[in-house]
């Protein structure tokens, strides 16, 4: 992706096979906050925080279904 924040340089997307989630994103309630240019490009193109996705995550949080136990464990392991 051509990133305007880096002076028009190309920025790659997050690769879950080689990148650590916690290095590029942070979960804040229903929002997924990018921490790097890779995270920013990925979140923007994939619409991580579009209103429909935020609403869906808010409902899942309300019912105790987000983040899942597996996702929470992965985030905890990858952040260390």
Topology (elements, then pairings):
Blueprint: E1 2-3, E2 9-10, H1 21-24, E3 25-28, E4 31-34, H2 37-46, H3 51-62, H4 69-78
Antiparallel strand pairs: 1-2, 3-4
| Number of separate strands | 4
The backbone outline, from C-alpha atoms, is: flat
Biggest sheet: strands side by side, in what order?
1-2
Strand content: 15-25%
> How would you spell out the order of helices and strands?
EEHEEHHH
Structure summary:
With 80 residues, the chain is α+β, with helices and mostly antiparallel strands. 45% of the residues lie in helices and 15% in strands.
What does the model show?
- This protein is α+β, with helices and mostly antiparallel strands.
- It has one domain.
- Helices cover 45% and strands 15% of the residues.
- It contains 4 helices and 4 strands.
- It has helices spanning 21-24, 37-46, 51-62, 69-78; strands spanning 2-3, 9-10, 25-28, 31-34.
- The strands form 2 sheets. A two-stranded antiparallel ribbon has the order 1-2. The protein has a two-stranded antiparallel sheet with strand order 3-4.
- The radius of gyration is 14 Å and the shape is flat.
